[in-house]
Amino acid sequence: MLFSSLNAVVALFATLVSSQRLTKPPLQQNLDNLQAGFINNLTPVTSTRTAYQAGYIPADCKRIAQNENVNPADIQVWNVKYSDCSAVWQFCYHRNSNGPLNDLIDRFGRLPVHTRQFNRHIMSLPSTNGYAYNSGGNLVFFGTTLSNLNVHIHEAAHSLDLLGAFFPDKPLSGSTKWTNEYNLDSAVPDPYAQTNQVENVAQNTVVTTYERNVP
Predict the structure, then answer these.
(1) Which of 19, 73, 168, 172 has the most CB atoms at less than 10 Å from its CB?
(2) How far, in Å, are 44, 95, 102, 148, 162 from residue 98 at the CA level?
(3) How many CA within 13 A on the CB side of residue 2?
(4) Which pairing describes strands 75-82 and 88-94: parallel, antiparallel, or unpaired?
């Protein structure tokens, strides 16, 4: 996994596309109707967890907590290993999160293993609002989004796009190949996909995951 200087690269790319709003109409108002199909058809993977070294927290989790004005001492860190691969992920779970740790582990574990491998740490923080973001391959969930499979897929899709799952040296969302395919479409999945091509790739990944896994 490549994470050195990644935040700067992703931030620069996001800045470049942030004003490039898409004008094609949305097919529907949101993708909430896909949630039940994901839960019923993306098979949960068994996992084991062990406590991270006492008194320590991954540097990225500490940085994100501090940026969100959260005390890192309130973050519980767990090493999580799924039965379908040898990798271990660190889950940084705030003790006042708006959902159970088991949900966070279960939802991330339902993602295809080759999607999971492009993500680093998984984090949940308390909030009265439900939102999430991807920070350099770290998935950060606020409020009840930790239990939302749509959101897990969307945020993991940013890692696939920006960390080289499709091209080794550039994001799919900034590629000529993606632009050419986009030009053939008459619409985008939903209004959030209109934000820019980065969000359009992520929402299309949600739709594609549904099409390939839900009968």
Answers:
(1) 172
(2) 21, 9, 12, 12, 28
(3) 13
(4) antiparallel
DSSP string covering 173-203? GGSHHHHHHHHH-S-BSSGGGGS-HHHHHHH
Q: According to the model, what pLDDT value does residue 137 have?
A: 97
Q: What is the pLDDT of residues 24-68, one digit of tens each?
A: 999 999 999 999 999 999 999 999 999 999 999 999 999 999 999
Q: How far apart are CA 51 and CA 149, in angstroms?
A: 25
Token pair in block for residue 195: 């934000």
Q: What are the pLDDT digits (tens) for 140-190? A: 999 999 999 999 999 999 999 999 898 888 899 999 999 999 999 999 999
Q: What residues form DSSP beta bridges with 80? A: 49, 89
- CB-CB neighbours of 144 under 10 Å: 16
